[in-house]
Every structure is written in structure tokens, then in C-alpha cells.
Write a structure and sequence with these properties.
By secondary structure, the protein is mostly helical. Helices cover 74% and strands 5% of the residues. Helix 10 runs parallel beside helix 12.
């Protein structure tokens, strides 16, 4: 069989196989185009008020989809023409086979399109032509390319719209519940940092949702190296950040709620601690007067009065509780609890310091009586020296004011005298004694 501009003329079997292949490709392309036409993402893109990169890319995609259908119609017409030629007679003539070879292999498909349809289409962009001749094979390649780029955009936009607005709405609903809860415990903008955070999160989520709806492709991160349509993921960076910020606010509000729950018990405990501190200071002041009256030549620390600032802060805390200002009460209670414990410790230390001379006198009295009992057990209680030194030490320790330094020396002299008498028999108990 002869050859033409497209190569050797196809025989009947080759024509039939080519038509079968092209028919299968036509059916597959038609199925894909109808699926793209019915894709929820495409319908949303057609009806949306788009902005930014999505508006720009969708304009190009719409032109590409229009051109895609133009290509498909031309492909359909060419395939129908080829089928009609083949159907003229059971045994195609040489002229029929030559015509079929040109139609099936040559650039015999003329695609005409408007300037609007082809202005942004990648296959014709820059050619300056409103029509172009293609072979059926090239036309299939062109359609596959246009379909892949269009579907990639549609799937990406649909994935963002499916993922982010619903999540933003759920977070916004949680935000509203948190705002109501915050308001109930006094956490309001301008009065508490958490209230300001809630306002900022509200503004950010409102703006984010508007941007996602109008420009979904601005929130799409393609997967590097992926050739699959819609290969990538929605960019949730801003959403995730605001979700974490809302969780932090919620934890702070929970802490305020805890304060509301046990505020009365904490206030009662605070009053008790400060009352004990006051009583301890009062005891220290009384003890100081006693020490000054009973102990001579001793420096006794001055006992300060109860701090009025703590009582004022305690009254302020009670006011906060009465007016449900829990956000103010929370930090004040924490501060007061630390200060109250410190005040009780200071009062106890003050009492210890003031009563130290009385403790010394009590220790000297106990030591003197202990030695007296010891010498009595050894039958030395009536020793004149011991009786004299004992009475002298006793007068000093039981008189007022008591000079602790002189009294301590008197006790030591009694101890030494008792120790000498108690060791005497052992000294006399040697050989020949």
C-alpha cells in the first residue's frame, strides 16, 4: 500500500484498531470532563466571589476548561467523521484508507476558538492564533494537560474549603462559649489580658475565614514532586496558632473558675493565718514586757505591730469576691497567701527572740535544781558550801529583775563546788586510803 505525508497508508485492520483505541480514549476523556463539570469544587469556584491568587488562577482555569471542551468537541467530530468514512463500505477502498490515515495520523483537526477562550490557555498562549491544527494524538495530549492543571486547581481549592472553614467555624463556636464564660468571671477586654486575647483571636478568625473563602489557594501547600491532582495539603498555620492561643486563654479562665469555687475557703484560711500571726505578735509584746520586768541587763528586740497593708488587701479581696471580680481576686489571693505565711513565720520568730532570756533563765533554774538533786542522792545536800552557793544562785534566779550573766556565774560556781565534792571520795579511795 502506498505512503502519504503521514507515512504509510493504514490497512483496514490498523484503522479498526486505531478507531477502537480512539473510541476508548474518547469515552475516558468524556467521563473525566463530566466529572470535572460536576465537581463540587468547580461549582463553588464558579459561584464564589474570589480574590487574590485564586481569582487569577481560576480565570486561567476557566479559559482552559472552555478550551478543553472545544478540543473535545473537535476530537468528537473528527472521530465521528472517521467512523462515518469507515462505515461507508465493509471493505474500505484505497481512497477511504488514505483519507482515514490522514484523519487519524495527520494534523487534520482544526480547532477554532475565541480570543476570550484562548487568552489564558497554556496551549495557545503566545501563539497569536485563534485556531490551530492538531493530530488526534496531539489533541489528546493537550486535553490531558489542560485537564490535569484544571483538576489540580479545583481539587486544591475544594480541599481547602472542605478543611478550613468548618474547622474555623468550630473554633469560633468554642471561642464564643469561652467569651461568655470569660465575661461571667469578669475577664473582659481592657480589664484582663485574657479578655484582650479573646478579642484578638476573634478578629483573626473572622479575617481568616473571609480570606479562606475568597482565596483558598493562598492556603494550599503543594507536595514537592507530586504529580497527582491536588497533591498537597491545606496550610493551617494561622488556624493552629489561634487554636493554641484560645486553649491558653481557656486554661487561664479555668484557673479563675477554680478561684471562684474555693474563694470563700481560701479567704477564711487567710483570716485564720493572719489572726494567728496577730495573736503571736500580741503574745510577743506581752512577753517582752515580762522580760523587761524580770530580766536585767538584756537587749530585748522590739515587737512590731500587725501590718495594716495585709488587712487592707484582705478587705480588698473580700470586696472582689462580693462583686464577682474573680480575675482580680485570683492573683491577689495568691499574693496574700504567700505574705500571710511569711507574716506568721515572722511573728513566731519575733516571739522566740523576745522570750529567749526567759528560756535561758528557765534552763539555769533547771540546771541548778538538777545538781541539787544529784548532790542530795550522794548525801551532800547539807554541805555548808553547797548550801551557801545554792541559796545565792537561787536568789538571783528567782528575783526580779534577774541579771542572767551574774546568775549564770552563780550556777557555775555551785556546779563546780558540787563536782569537787562528788569526786572527793574517788580521790581518797587510792592505796592505803
Amino acid at each position: 500500500m502506498g505512503a502519504g505525508p503521514t507515512g504509510p497508508v493504514l490497512d483496514r485492520d490498523e484503522v479498526d484498531r486505531a478507531l477502537a483505541r480512539l473510541g476508548a480514549e474518547h469515552e475516558a476523556i468524556e467521563t473525566s470532563l463530566l466529572a470535572l463539570q460536576d465537581h463540587a469544587g468547580r461549582r463553588l469556584l464558579e459561584g464564589a466571589d474570589l480574590t487574590g491568587v485564586t481569582k487569577e488562577r481560576w480565570a486561567a482555569a476557566e479559559a482552559a476548561i472552555t478550551l478543553l471542551w472545544t478540543y473535545f468537541d473537535a476530537y468528537t467530530d473528527a472521530l465521528r467523521t472517521a467512523r462515518d468514512i469507515r462505515a461507508r463500505r465493509r471493505w474500505s477502498s484505497r481512497e477511504d484508507l488514505a483519507e482515514l490515515t490522514e484523519l487519524l495520523r495527520g494534523e487534520s483537526v482544526m480547532v477554532a476558538g475565541s480570543a476570550t477562550a484562548t487568552a489564558n490557555a497554556p496551549t495557545l498562549h503566545g501563539t497569536g492564533k485563534l485556531s490551530h491544527s492538531y493530530s488526534l494524538t496531539t489533541l489528546v495530549d493537550q486535553m490531558n494537560e489542560l485537564y490535569a492543571t484544571s483538576l489540580d486547581l479545583v481539587v486544591a481549592a475544594d480541599a481547602v474549603w472542605s478543611a478550613l472553614p468548618a474547622r474555623i467555624d468550630l473554633l469560633a463556636a468554642e471561642l464564643q462559649r469561652t467569651r461568655r464564660l470569660a465575661h461571667s468571671v469578669g475577664v473582659r477586654p481592657g480589664e484582663h489580658p485574657a479578655g484582650d486575647d479573646l478579642e484578638r483571636i476573634t478578629r483573626t478568625l473572622t479575617s481568616l475565614r473571609e480570606q479562606v473563602v475568597s482565596d483558598p489557594l493562598a492556603f494550599w501547600v503543594p507536595t514537592k514532586g507530586s504529580s497527582a491532582p491536588g497533591g498537597g495539603r491545606p496550610d493551617t498555620t494561622v488556624y493552629d496558632r489561634e487554636a493554641r492561643a484560645l486553649e491558653e486563654v481557656r486554661r487561664e479562665i479555668d484557673a479563675v473558675l477554680e478561684v471562684r469555687k474555693d474563694a470563700e475557703q481560701r479567704l477564711i484560711k487567710l483570716r485564720d493565718v493572719l489572726s494567728r500571726a496577730d495573736r503571736t505578735l500580741a503574745e510577743a509584746r506581752t512577753a517582752r514586757g515580762e522580760v523587761l520586768a524580770k530580766i536585767a541587763a538584756t537587749e530585748v528586740p522590739v515587737v512590731s505591730g500587725p501590718p495594716t497593708a495585709l488587712q487592707e488587701q484582705l478587705a480588698t479581696a473580700a470586696e472582689y469576691r462580693r462583686h464577682a471580680q474573680w480575675h482580680r481576686l485570683s492573683p491577689l489571693l495568691e499574693s496574700l497567701e504567700r505574705k500571710a505565711e511569711d507574716e506568721l513565720l515572722r511573728a513566731r520568730e519575733s516571739l522566740t527572740a523576745v522570750t529567749a532570756p526567759l528560756a535561758v533563765r528557765a534552763e539555769l533554774r533547771g540546771r541548778l535544781d538538777a545538781y541539787k538533786a544529784k548532790v542530795a542522792r550522794h548525801g551532800l545536800a547539807e554541805d555548808p558550801l553547797l548550801v551557801e552557793r545554792y541559796e545565792k544562785a537561787r536568789r538571783m534566779l528567782w528575783s526580779a529583775p534577774c541579771d542572767l550573766r551574774v546568775a549564770e556565774q552563780a550556777v557555775l560556781r555551785y556546779q563546780h563546788a558540787a563536782a569537787e565534792l562528788l569526786s572527793g571520795p574517788r580521790d581518797r579511795g587510792g592505796p592505803g586510803g
